[in-house]
Design a protein that fits this description.
By secondary structure, the chain is an alpha/beta fold. Helix content is about 40%, strand content about 25%. The protein is globular, with a radius of gyration of 19 Å.
Length: about 350
């Protein structure tokens, strides 16, 4: 008999490098196949400066250096998860469902790398681990991203759109019975880069960006980037920021505040452009939901859209929540990746089970 109740931990480390999100979640599936969840303990563990510095530059590592980084990060991540379990005295865990941390994402080359997904993570944690969700999709010709949309369909069907504002923004929605999803633009990968230059970890509530001015030439140059003209399925990696977006921003000798203000306007416009229907209701999650200036500019571009920011746990831990669900679906041998979203040749049940 297939289990309908699960006690799991979801783990996510995003490209914004805010830290490792961990959420202890209880899931239940009723007799009609409808899933419900409760987020119990949850925590974000910030990266120590040594790890932060390594992860920022790892995209340029050699193959051998990446292999060693993977080993070291798996030990580190396993320790963080075990500490979370011990601190909160979590018992009878069905699985730890972990995304790992994306270092390279080059689906057009048939390659994606999430470190922290080596087999020994299960023995470090002392529990079953479901992880490495992206590789199989890339092997099937997909983008390996975004993976969250099936969770949006299952858990948040009442919203017309689900928008996540993390290192990058991504959106998912139903269109003619198919779930559509794609990455829209960089968000905190760029905003945090410039906030760091001013001595801040991030742009608190968007106040730095708000203080700047719109630079029209830069704004138009950003909006003309090739990625925004592409049809979905499409996804973004840090390579896009490092090789295209930051060099463009750096080519303008204007105050950092103006760059950030202009980039906020860019995010808001690209979000509006990405939505086929500009009305209804949109759930907004991720760290960018705390950026009041960004939300205001988004609302100005989408005057007929109701923007809904949920409770704090769902807002901050939605990706950990959904990767926990992806892990459960894998354990049940059910589809957890949609080809309509990633462009893979078929829907499939992705991930690796250890332990």
């Amino acid at each position: 008999m297939v289990s309908t109740s699960f006690n799991v931990i979801g783990v996510m480390s995003g490209t914004s490098l805010d830290g490792i999100d961990l959420a202890h979640i209880h899931f239940n599936c009723n007799e009609h196949g409808k899933w419900s969840y409760e987020i119990l303990e949850s925590e974000t563990i910030p990266y120590p400066i040594t790890w932060l510095n390594q992860l920022k530059i790892a995209v340029g590592f050699t193959k051998e250096a990446l292999q060693q980084l993977n080993v070291d990060y798996t030990l580190y991540l396993g320790g963080v998860i075990k500490s979370f379990i011990d601190t909160h005295q979590i018992k009878s865990i069905d699985a730890v469902c972990s995304h790992g941390h994306t270092i390279l994402h080059q689906p057009q080359q048939g390659y994606t790398l999430q470190i922290g997904n080596l087999q020994n993570i299960a023995s470090i944690i002392g529990a079953k681990v479901v992880c490495d969700f992206r590789v199989q999709d890339v092997q099937l010709g997909g983008q390996g991203a975004p993976l969250v949309p099936i969770g949006d369909r299952i858990l948040f069907a009442e919203y017309d759109y689900c928008l996540n504002l993390g290192g990058f923004s991504n959106v998912s929605f139903e269109e003619e019975g198919r779930r559509i999803a794609f990455d829209i633009s960089p968000v905190n990968t760029v905003l945090n880069f410039y906030a760091n230059q001013l001595g801040f970890d991030y742009d608190n509530q968007g106040e730095i960006s708000r203080s700047g001015k719109l630079h029209l030439d830069l704004f138009e140059s950003l909006n003309q980037l090739e990625y925004y003209q592409k049809a979905f399925p499409k996804s973004l990696g840090f390579e896009f920021v490092k090789e295209i977006v930051l060099p463009l921003l750096e080519s303008y000798a204007i105050p950092i505040e103006d760059k950030m203000h202009t980039f906020i306007e860019h995010i808001a416009l690209q979000t509006a452009n990405a939505l086929p229907n500009k009305q209804g209701c949109m759930l907004i999650t991720g760290g960018g939901a705390y950026n009041n200036f960004l939300i205001e500019q988004m609302q100005s571009h989408l005057p007929k859209m109701e923007l809904i920011i949920p409770d704090g746990k769902t807002l901050e831990f939605k990706e950990a929540l959904i990767f926990a669900l992806l892990g459960i679906l894998k354990l049940r041998n059910e589809i957890n990746v949609l080809s309509s979203v990633t462009g893979a040749k078929e829907d499939h049940s992705s991930g690796v089970i250890y332990g």
